[in-house]
Amino acid sequence: MNFCSVCGHPVERKIPPLDHLPRYVCPNCATIHYENPRIVAGTLPLRGNQILLCRRAIAPRIGYWTLPAGFMECNESTLEAAMRETWEEAGARVRIDALHALLDVPHIHQVHLFYRATLLDLDWVPGAETLEIRLFPLSCLPWDELAFPTVRRALEYLLRGEATALSPQGTTRYPTVPLIETLPPRSARP
Amino acid sequence: MNFCSVCGHPVERKIPPLDHLPRYVCPNCATIHYENPRIVAGTLPLRGNQILLCRRAIAPRIGYWTLPAGFMECNESTLEAAMRETWEEAGARVRIDALHALLDVPHIHQVHLFYRATLLDLDWVPGAETLEIRLFPLSCLPWDELAFPTVRRALEYLLRGEATALSPQGTTRYPTVPLIETLPPRSARP
Ligand SMILES: [Zn+2]
Ligand SMILES: [Zn+2]
C-alpha cells in the first residue's frame, strides 16, 4: 500500500494512538487502513464413499488436485461461499452437512473453512479454473498430487473420522467436532 | 474506495474478465482491489458456572455488555486473536477449550468466531475499550443489556448446552458441536 484509497495522498506507516501495531495511516484525511486475514471457504463434496476433487487449471499449483474452495465475498455467508465455489469450480450442487475443519494459515493471512457436503447430482462440469473433475474413492485419494496443505489436512481428518467411527451396519460416519488447527509455514513443517 | 492504493490513480468500478462481480479496478496499473469479509474473534471466558463479560467504553453500544472479541489481525491464528482480545479488553488470561460458535453476519461483511475458554486467573483489569468487568452467574446474565446479536446467540447456545447436558454428577458440560448460523439484519428479525 502506497496511497490512501480515500483521498489519494501517500500513506505513512506508523502506530496510531491507542494501537499497538504499525498501520498504513493517511496524513491528509487521517484514515487508518487496516489489513485483515481473508477467508477461503470450500466443501468436501461426498457421495457415499467417494469425494469430488478438482484438478487446478490456474496458478498456483496448476495440475494438482484440490477441494472446491475460494475467497469468500462480501454479502454472503461462509456456507454460501462454500456452495458458490463448489458451483463455480465444479458445476456441482451440494447440500452442506457440517463444519469439517477450520484451518488457520497465519503466514499467508488466511483462514480456511471446509464444510462437509453431499453431492446432489452427478452433472458436474469443470469451471474456468478447473482442468478436470473426478470422483475418487476415499480409499484411493491422490495423496502425492494434492494442491495445498489445508486440503491434505481436511482429507486426512475425513479418513480418520471414517476409520474410527464405522458403525456396526457399515454406514460411514464422519467426525462431529470440526478440526481446529494452525498450519505452519512449509519451512517449519517436520 | 476512490483511489488505487498501489499507484494513486482514480479507480473504476467494473466487472473484470472471467469475474462475475463488480470490483474496484485501476485503469493505470490494472490492480483489482478485492474487498473481503473480516473476522471478529473472541472468547467465552468461563470459571465454573460464571462467565466474564465486559461493559463497552467505546462506540458502538457504549455501556452495554459484551464478550471480549475484536478484529483478527494478520500474522495470527483465530485462537491467538481470541486470546489477544481477551487480554486487551479484560486483562484476562484464558485457556482455549473448543470452538463454540461460527456466526455469519453477511450484511456487515463479518464472520464472528467465539471460542469457549477457561479463565486462568482472577487478576483481570479493564482495558482502554472497557468500562467495567464482571463475572456473571450463567443463571443471571444481563440479557437486556447485551451489546450485539452475536453475543446473545453465543450465550444462548452456551445455556442450551448446559441445560440439556448436565451430567449425573452435576458437572457442567458444554456443546461439542459449534453453533453455525447466519444472522440477518435487524430489520429482518422476527
Ligand atoms: Zn487519505
Ligand atoms: Zn493503480
Task: Give a verbal description of the structure.
2 copies of one chain form a homodimer. About 4% of the residues of chain A have low confidence. In chain A, strands 4, 5, 6, 7, 8, 9, 10 and 11 form an 8-stranded mixed β-sheet that branches. Helices cover 15% and strands 34% of the residues of chain A. Chain A has 190 residues and is α+β, with helices and mostly antiparallel strands. Chain A has 2 helices and 11 strands, in the order βββββββαβββαβ. The first copy, chain A, folds into 2 domains: 35 residues, Ubiquitin Ligase Nedd4, Chain: W (Single Sheet); 151 residues, Nucleoside Triphosphate Pyrophosphohydrolase (Alpha-Beta Complex). At the A-B interface, helix 1 and strand 8 of A face helix 1 and strand 8 of B. The structure holds zinc ion (2 copies). One zinc ion (ZN) binds next to loops of chain A. Chains A, B: Keywords: Hydrolase. Chains A, B: GO terms for molecular function: hydrolase activity. Chains A, B: This is NUDIX hydrolase. Chains A, B: Its cofactor is Mg(2+). Chains A, B: It comes from Hydrogenophilus thermoluteolus (Pseudomonas hydrogenothermophila).
What does this entry show, briefly?
Two copies of one chain form a homodimer. The first copy, chain A, has helices spanning 78-90, 149-164; strands at residues 12-14, 23-25, 32-33, 38-47, 50-56, 65-66, 69-71, 94-105, 110-119, 130-137, 179-182.
**How many discrete domains of chain A?**
2
Instruction: Indicate the mean pLDDT of chain A.
Output: 91
* Shape category of chain A: elongated
Q: Strand fraction band of chain A?
A: 25-35%
For the record, what is the CATH homologous superfamily label of the largest domain in chain A?
A: Nucleoside Triphosphate Pyrophosphohydrolase
